[in-house]
Amino acid sequence: MYRAGRRLGIELLGLQAGDQVLDIGCGTGLNFALLQKEIGPSGTIVGVDRSADMLKLARRRADRNGWTNVILIEADAVALAPTEVSQRIAEQGGREHSDASFATYALSLMPDWGIAWENMLALTTGTAVLGVVDMQEPTGPFSVMAPLARLACWLGGSDIHAHPWTAVERDCGAVAAASARGAHLQIRVGRLTA
Ligand SMILES: C[S@@+](CC[C@H](N)C(=O)[O-])C[C@H]1O[C@@H](n2cnc3c(N)ncnc32)[C@H](O)[C@@H]1O
Question: What is the pTM of this model?
């Protein structure tokens, strides 16, 4: 159901081999395999999540796959201090500022997602690519599925009305948009301009 959003989002990021990509609210690392295909072993994934249990599973996934280029940071995306997180990334061999910042199905869980977005910006270079994949109510012929989508989001703790991809539209240039599953999944990717 949700893999389509990850796949479309990561395609649109247009990552290059060697890039460092931040995965905010990375959970168990479901984006990692697709990201690895783009950045290769010379790139770096920085997964940030507030849940130590999720990060344990993400580390297990990285170890199982032999990905030695994964840095995991336990931090609240809303409350974190970007300079401190940048320092922790550098201490683990990464660069202080990432080439890309990506959040899938995570920002809508954060009541103050606007602050998390600002932190995503602060942790990237001035010309980074930013991507958000999240959920809204399905539309058109798929609107019959809206009650189910609302229930799924409610059970998962997401605000289906948060629409955090609007920040990409507001703050980035060359914004690419895609959707899937009857517009339930919304994908936006854009680039910061220096
Ligand atoms: C629905 S999961 C999505 C995980 C992953 N991005 C994916 O696509 O499978 C949401 C994740 O966001 C994390 N999360 C929620 N609020 C957070 C916050 N304020 N700071 C950091 N992580 C947060 C949760 O711990 C969880 O791992």
Answer: 0.96
